């Protein structure tokens, strides 16, 4: 079990309001990702759930038990830190066993559990080494192993992949997803990387300045962002947005269209522009256009389309994929 | 960035040290201030003491020994600072060079710092500066000069040599450490720019050393203002008042003349002088805390 | 990193450095050598460099006459006691400053530093009188307390700078793992900070061992350490150079060895982290 309910959670540091008031329910077994730009309060929210920070107001319940004032150890949660936070003076084995030892578990039982976790994460070869002798990916696995053995109600991940190189990040992403499928334990994962959010989450929580902007599945956020912030934060490259005559013509304060939802042509279309930069990525080409009267636009074209800087291009937005927002930045339903 | 439980634990664990240091600071200082206003002779005992106002300060400052001791204090501190900072930079630069046996050389240079003050003073006084059988006397005689009777003719210079020998390693060690942290790419860039050694030193090394130099000056000042043992075991403040500095004068008032009030007044003057230095040092270290 | 030097430049630099380093070290070497001479050889003119009859009799005379080991034991008791007390009070304080800082922590640290700058001269009188009243004059406990308080700011500062380098996340991980505050300090912080604690201990032992104001002014016999033992040679006994040298060598040797081990950490401790 691992159902977590946050009710009116507030956090201030002196006069600075980090989280003005958050209500959120995380169901048992869900993989929830907190995503948002740096300084949006996502890590603070995670630390509040962990019990490493005091909330200024509100309540936290885990499995319907109020843990608002419980110390971290009493909440039954495990955490994987950004820096892995392994104990440098202990072997991999002792690192994993430390939590069980603190809980006063008998030695043979600890050994059994550590071996099990080690097998699961392929730690066998370096179980007796110190963290200092391991690579980044291996340290990450040890940190996860340390979290697993305690059989927590939920796992908390604080930007766990941000210190790894790109290739390893993709691999570890898949391993964590696989782990969630095997364990079916609740996981809360904090990241600023929307790709991680989209690929891993059952449910994404988009945070901005301590407020929840939207909660939903990856596809929901992509297809129907509730407001401009979510629209621009989710998706890469970023959604094109325009205000002015083009928006007014469609009865909105702002309109948005994703680069992949436009038809590109050399001969005709709604908007005529000049290619300022063309990025050839193989499967796709991203074109950065200057469109007089509309503004700069990013569009995705076919990888073999053969556009170059200076070319004249016509683009037409697919109207069914157009997003419309009112003056306050909220999407029209 | 922590829970209230952590903050509470922090307060509780810091409390003993803060409390102890508070007592350590306030009680003796308050007593010094109190004694400085008394006519109090140690031989007569506290019962015989009487309030005398600022008379102790008046007599202490009016005593010709006071001005002499202040002058001696500044001569001692100033000379040692100049010698150790200049010598320390030189030695630090040498030890930072790409030389053979850097480790053993460094160990030899740092060694005098660990020698207790009474030992270094006595070794220098006897084995080196003795006018008849000392090593210096022999060197002078070998070259046909008359040996110098250091503690009779140049007592202050002798003390300065001893103290500078003790503190040169400290300066050298700190400058060497600071030089090692000098960005290697900066050195490479300067070399690529074809900077001659002099301008390399003036425009890159010296600015980099500005802070360590300040630190060395301030920390040495604090210790040097309190020099006592070296004088105690060599000259006893003499001949006459030639090597009596402020700490030694206070000691003389208190434990040789048993004048508690006068010594307390002198002690307070020493506190004021040391505080002027410490304000600068505290500022400097405080700035460092922020970065 | 030093600049790569040409061969001849390297030879010159090595020679200059070694000559100067040797000159600085020479008085210690000369002291050690003299300690193995007979009194006659010690005064010989021209001075004898290694070409004398080596003898260890000075060491036994020093021991017989002035009971070197009693003073040495006092030095050990005083510096050990002061250091132990310092750790006991200093580690919790440094933990607090490094991991549970408040907005006043910086001011508190600087204030602690400023107590170190109080000249001993300024408080000699009250301490002297106070110690007479308390019956602490020339006692181990009295000297230990004064050395402990005198060095406490340096200890806290040194420990603080070392603790600061330990990422707080590791202590939080221990907290998540169910460690209590006490276990967090004992099982995680202390083992990680061993190098820092060790060099703090070393520096503190060195400073206490060599302290020569309070130890000279507040002791006579019972609690007198080696600083006072050597000071007694400033009287006519100082005329016996070989014995003075032997006594000095004995007083200096332990700390010289400790000091060489700790020279790298020394800078940080002595500059309150201002130079690293």
Structural description of this entry:
The complex is a heterotrimer of chains A (333), B (291) and C (276). Chain A is an alpha+beta fold. Chain A is built from 9 helices and 18 strands. Chain A has helices at residues 42-50, 92-102, 107-120, 136-149, 166-183, 194-200, 218-223, 228-233, 245-249; strands spanning 4-13, 16-26, 31-35, 57-62, 65-66, 77-80, 154-158, 186-191, 203-208, 211-216, 240-243, 254-257, 262-265, 271-280, 284-291, 295-302, 312-317, 323-325. The mean pLDDT of chain A is 89. Chain B is mainly α and 291 residues long. Chain B has a single domain, classed as MetI-like fold, CATH 1.10.3720. Chain B has helices spanning 4-36, 55-62, 64-95, 102-110, 117-128, 135-142, 150-153, 155-180, 184-192, 197-224, 229-234, 246-256, 260-290; strands at residues 38-39, 50-51. With 276 residues, chain C is mostly helical. In chain C, 75% of the residues lie in helices and 0% in strands. Chain C starts with 6 loop residues before the first helix and ends in a 6-residue tail after the last helix. The model of chain C has no long low-confidence stretch (mean pLDDT 83). Chains in contact: A-B, A-C, B-C. Chains A and B meet through loops of A and loops of B.
**Poorly predicted residue ranges of chain B:** none
Strand content of chain B: under 5%
Question: What is the overall silhouette of chain A?
Answer: globular
State the shape of chain B: flat
Number of strands of chain B: 2
At the first level of CATH, what is the class of chain B? Mainly Alpha
What structural class results from the helix and strand content of chain B? mainly alpha
- The beta-strand count of chain A equals 18
């Amino acid at each position: 079990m691992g159902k977590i309910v946050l009710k009116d959670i507030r956090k201030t540091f002196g006069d600075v309001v980090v989280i003005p008031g958050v209500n959120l329910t995380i169901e048992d077994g869900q993989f929830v990702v907190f995503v948002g730009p740096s300084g949006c309060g996502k890590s603070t929210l995670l630390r509040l759930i962990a019990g490493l920070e005091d909330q200024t107001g509100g309540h936290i319940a885990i499995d319907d038990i109020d843990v608002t004032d419980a110390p971290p150890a009493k909440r039954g949660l495990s955490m994987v830190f950004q820096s892995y936070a392994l104990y440098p003076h202990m072997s991999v084995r002792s690192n994993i066993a430390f939590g069980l030892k603190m809980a006063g578990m008998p030695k043979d039982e600890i050994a059994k559990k550590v071996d099990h976790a080690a097998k699961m994460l392929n730690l066998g070869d370096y179980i007796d080494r110190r963290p200092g002798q391991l690579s980044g990916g291996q340290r990450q696995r040890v940190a996860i192993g340390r979290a697993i053995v305690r059989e927590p109600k939920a796992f908390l991940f604080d930007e766990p992949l941000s210190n790894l190189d790109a290739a390893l990040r993709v691999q570890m992403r898949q391993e964590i997803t696989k782990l969630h499928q095997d364990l079916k334990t609740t996981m809360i994962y904090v990241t600023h990387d929307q790709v991680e959010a989209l690929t891993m989450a059952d449910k994404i929580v988009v945070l901005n300045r301590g407020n929840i902007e939207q909660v939903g599945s990856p596809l929901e956020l992509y297809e129907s962002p509730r407001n401009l912030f979510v629209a621009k934060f989710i998706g890469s490259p970023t959604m094109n947005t325009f205000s002015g005559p083009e928006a007014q013509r469609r009865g909105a304060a702002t309109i948005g269209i994703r680069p992949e939802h436009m038809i590109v042509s050399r001969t005709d279309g709604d908007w005529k522009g000049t290619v300022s930069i063309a990025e050839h990525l193989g499967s796709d080409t991203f074109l950065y256009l200057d469109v007089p009267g509309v503004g700069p636009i990013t569009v995705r074209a076919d990888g073999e389309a053969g556009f170059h800087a200076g070319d004249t291009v016509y683009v037409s937005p697919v109207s069914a994929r157009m997003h419309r927002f009112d003056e306050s930045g909220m999407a029209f339903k | 960035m922590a829970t209230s439980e952590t903050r509470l634990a922090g307060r509780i664990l810091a409390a003993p040290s803060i409390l102890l240091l508070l007592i350590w600071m306030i009680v003796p200082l308050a007593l010094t201030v109190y004694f400085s206003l008394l006519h109090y002779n140690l031989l007569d005992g506290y019962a015989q003491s009487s309030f005398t106002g600022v008379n102790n300060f008046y007599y202490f400052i009016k005593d010709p020994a006071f001005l002499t001791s202040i002058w001696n204090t500044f001569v001692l501190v100033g000379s040692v600072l100049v010698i150790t900072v200049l010598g320390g930079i030189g030695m630090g630069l040498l030890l930072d060079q790409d030389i053979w046996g850097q480790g053993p050389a460094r160990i030899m240079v740092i060694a005098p710092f660990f020698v207790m003050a009474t030992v270094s003073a006595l070794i220098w006084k006897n084995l080196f500066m003795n006018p008849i059988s000392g090593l210096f006397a022999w060197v002078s005689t070998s070259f046909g000069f008359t040996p110098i009777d250091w503690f009779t003719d140049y007592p202050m210079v002798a003390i300065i040599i001893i103290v500078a020998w003790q503190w040169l390693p400290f300066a050298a060690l700190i400058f060497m450490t600071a030089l090692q942290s000098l960005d290697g790419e900066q050195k490479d860039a300067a070399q690529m720019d074809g900077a001659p050694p002099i301008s390399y030193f003036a425009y890159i090394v010296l600015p980099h050393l500005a802070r360590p130099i300040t630190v060395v000056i301030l920390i040495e000042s604090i210790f040097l203002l309190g020099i006592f043992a070296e004088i105690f075991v060599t000259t006893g403040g003499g001949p006459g008042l030639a090597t009596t500095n402020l700490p030694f004068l206070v000691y003389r008032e208190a434990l040789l003349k048993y004048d508690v009030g006068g010594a307390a007044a002198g002690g307070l003057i020493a506190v004021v002088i040391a505080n002027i230095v410490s304000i600068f040092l505290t500022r400097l270290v405080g700035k460092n805390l922020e970065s | 990193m030093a600049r790569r030097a040409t061969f001849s430049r390297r030879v010159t630099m090595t020679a200059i450095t070694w000559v100067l380093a040797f000159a600085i070290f020479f008085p210690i070497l000369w002291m050690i050598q003299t300690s193995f001479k007979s009194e006659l050889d010690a005064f010989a003119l021209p001075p004898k460099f290694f070409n004398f009859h080596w003898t260890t009799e000075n060491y036994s005379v020093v021991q017989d006459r002035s009971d070197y080991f009693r003073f040495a034991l006092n030095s050990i008791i005083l510096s050990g006691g002061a250091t132990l007390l310092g750790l006991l009070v200093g580690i919790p304080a440094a933990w607090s400053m490094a991991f549970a800082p408040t907005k006043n922590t910086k001011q508190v640290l600087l204030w602690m530093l400023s107590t170190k700058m109080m000249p001993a001269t300024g408080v000699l009188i009250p301490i002297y009188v106070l110690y007479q009243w308390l019956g602490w004059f020339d006692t181990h406990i009295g000297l230990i307390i004064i050395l402990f308080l005198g060095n406490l700011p340096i200890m806290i500062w040194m420990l603080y700078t070392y603790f600061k380098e330990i990422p707080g996340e590791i202590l939080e991980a221990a907290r998540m793992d169910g460690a209590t505050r006490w276990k967090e300090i004992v099982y995680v912080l202390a083992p990680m900070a061993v190098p820092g604690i060790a060099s703090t201990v070393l520096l503190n032992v060195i400073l206490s061992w060599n302290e020569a104001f309070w130890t000279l002014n507040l002791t006579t016999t019972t609690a007198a350490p080696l600083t006072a033992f050597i000071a007694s040679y400033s009287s006519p006994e100082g005329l016996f150079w070989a014995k003075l040298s032997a006594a000095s060598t004995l007083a200096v040797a332990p700390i010289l060895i400790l000091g060489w081990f700790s020279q790298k950490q020394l800078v940080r401790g002595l500059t309150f982290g201002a130079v690293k």
